[in-house]
Structures are given as C-alpha cells and as structure tokens.
Amino acid sequence: MLPIEHLYVHIPFCPKLCPYCCFYVEEGGRNKNIAFLDALLSELDAVQALRPVVPKTIYFGGGTPTALLVDQLEYLLKGIHARLPLNALQEWTVEANPATVRPEKARVLREAGVTRMSLGVQSWNSSTLKTLGRVHSAQQAHTTYDLLRSTGFPAVNIDLMFSVPGQTPEEWECDLKTTLGLKPEHISAYCLTYEEDTEYFRKLRTGQFVQSEEKDARMFELTMDVLSEGGFRQYEISNHARRGFESMHNLAYWQGREYLGLGPSAFSTLDGTRFQNVRDTAEYVKRLKGGVSPMLTQEPLPPETLLKESIAFGLRLDIGVAEEQLAPWSDETAHLEEIGLLEQVEGHFRLTRRGKMLADAVGERFM
Which of 6, 215, 222, 348 has the most beta carbons within 10 angstroms of its beta carbon? Predict the structure, then answer.
C-alpha cells in the first residue's frame, strides 16, 4: 500500500473570530487545547494502523496554529516527530497570526523542522485591519515578519486581502508595494468573498456593504501587474512566488494528489473517497477518546468527478491543463478560445489574462 505523502492538521483555535471567516474555528483554553492535541495524535495513530503516513509536505492550518501556547506546540511537534518518519519531508508550513508569535514560539517551530511560515497580515493599513476585525496592528505584523526572518525560516509567505469594504485601489497598491519591499518568498493575495453564515454576508444582504465586480477586477489586475513587476510568478490565481518557492502542499491539492486531514472539520481525499471530520471540537475529542472515528461524511469520487476537479483546479494554475484532458470538451474549449478566455501554449490550455479574472466561471463550464 502506497504511503500518504501530504498531511494537513487543522488547529481550530483563534484569538478572535474574524467577521468574514467561514472556517470552523473557536476560542481555545489550556485544558481544552491539551485534550484536543491528544485526540489529534490519536487520530493519526488510528490512520497509521491502516496505512503508512510518510509525509513529503505537512501543513498546520486553522484557525490559528500559533494560538497554541509554547508548551502545547512542543507537545504536538514532539508527538508528530515520535509518530512519523520525516526523512522524506520537503516542506512543513505553519499558518501564523502576527499577534500570536513570540520569539520562543518561533524558535520551537524552527527547531522542530518547520520550513515555511504563512503570516496572515491581510493589510498594512490600520483602517483596513480595523474593518477586517483583525487583532493585530500593522506594526505587530512588521515586527513578527522581522522575527520570522531572524529565526531563520527558509520561506515566509505573506497573506493579503483586497476588495475590503472602504479599501481604495491606491491603498491596495500601497499594501502590495510594502509587501514587495520586505522581500518575502511567496505572496497570497485573495479577493474578499462574502461567505454565508458570516457577519460580512449579513451586512452585504442588508446593504451595509456593497460588492463591486468592477472594483474587484481593477484590484485583481493591479495585483497581477505590481507583483509581476516585482519578480513574482503568478503560479495560481491567488498565489505568487519567487521561482522555486511555490507552495508544494497546496500544489498537491490543486494537482489532485491524495492527502490526509486531521482535526475537526478537516477533509481527506484517499483511495478515491473524500472524507470530512465532525465540525465540533468537543465531539471530535469525545469520539477519539472513546475509540470512535471522527468521520462525519464520506463521498465516493468516481473517475469522471476526479477528472472534472483536476480540470477546474488545473485551470487555476499557470501551466494550465493538458490538451488531451480537455479532448471531451473540444466545443467548449473552442468557444472559450474564441471569446478570449483560454489559449493554447505548448500542448496545454491555460487561462488568458482576461480568463484569470473569470477563473471560477470558466472552471464551472467543465463541472
């Protein structure tokens, strides 16, 4: 049986729930956190009893993994080291909130083998940060970035967000240029989306916020132009990297590789099936403590579904999708070429500049 090579670990705890966030998160607590970490390691043990886990990439996401205390992080990291062979590991990423990283925490992560930190800055503008409900200040973000650099992480990613209510294109351009000046290896730039069951969605529905496709498009074009001029390759619609610093873990998702997700609400795709764990930390802990699977749902993924997903995700990548994969949709691809959304380059179909601005709509044509 082939080993699982990509591991995602969901840490659901956050210092504060951001008003635009739709991920499963909750506030932590010392006793609750330890019980959760024990359950997390128990889930890993249960998986390994069925199939070997030999990771090439590990990703700690959330939530806020750095919301864990130093001793809790050490406990989790030691548990991972004790259970997994890490000789094949090529990338270990941890998401971080600028308000929750201290020197000792950074040192513990680096010494454990973490190679990449993903810093959720979102903006360098104080007004934008306030609108987003972030708990950190712009100065804290600068200080934390400098700390990660001095600690010696080989790669640092800066997460940014545009089309925030009240944010101007000029402010967004300033955010981009400030980020370029710090010389990170990777920049993720996401357009704000209004997800159901969030405070932002309710404000959109009641007219307190207004969404403008024209503004979104202008800021997206600005992103492509500024970051390209700054030496970054837009290897995925929302992700830009210096050569050689693309996110290997996220590429595994986009390229349709198998992966294991641990933690409440985490997804896994293994053996042609997609699984999701319960979206409740207390229930997750209770089940694993009782020797019961935390799985909530499982969905078979027939070959045609996997093909359609690989096309939708593949079109988000700059290399695009091989022509032979799109052969069954020849009429569709011809139409998309004709209207200037797709182009053929070296045996692949890829999105044009205009196509990138409509990537989701193009991908849906093949679903």
Answer: 6
Around Cβ 4, how many Cβ atoms within 10 Å?
20
**Longest CA pairwise span in the chain (Å):** 60
Instruction: Say if 114 falls within a structural domain.
Output: yes
- Cα R_g (the chain), whole angstroms: 21
Tell me how crowded residue 155 is: count the other CB atoms within 10 A of its CB. Answer: 20
Query: Which of 29-33, 257-261, 280-284 shows the lowest mean pLDDT across its residues?
Result: 29-33
- As beta bridge partners, residue 189 has 160
- 67-95 as b/e: b if 16+ CB within 10 A: bbbeebbbbbbebbeeebeeeebebbbbb
- Cα–Cα nearest to 119, from 187, 45, 168: 187
Q: Is residue 260 part of a domain?
A: no
Convert the pLDDT of each residue in 51-109 to its tens digit: 999 999 999 999 999 999 999 999 999 999 999 999 999 999 999 999 999 999 999 99
CA distance 238 to 110: 27
Strand partners, 262: 9
Are residues 29 and 159 both part of a single domain? Answer: yes
Residue 63: cis peptide before it, omega within 30 degrees of 0: yes
- Give Cα 140 distance to the centre of its chain: 22
The pLDDT of residue 27 is 72
Residue 348 lies in a domain: yes
Burial 113-127 (b: 16+ CB within 10 A, else e): ebbbbbbbbbbbbee
Residue numbers of the domain that contains 143: 4-254
Residue 240 maps to a domain? yes
Averaged pLDDT for residues 332-336: 94
CB of 333 closer than 8 Å to CB of 362? no
Whether 71 and 19 have beta carbons less than 8 Å apart is answered as: no
Do 232 and 321 lie in one domain? The reply is no
Tell me if residue 301 falls in helix, strand or coil: coil
333 with 326: CB under 8 angstroms? yes
- In angstroms, the CA 331 to CA 345 distance is 18
Q: For the chain, how many structural domains are there in total?
A: 2
In 3D, which of 174, 166, 170, 173 has the Cα closest to residue 192? 166
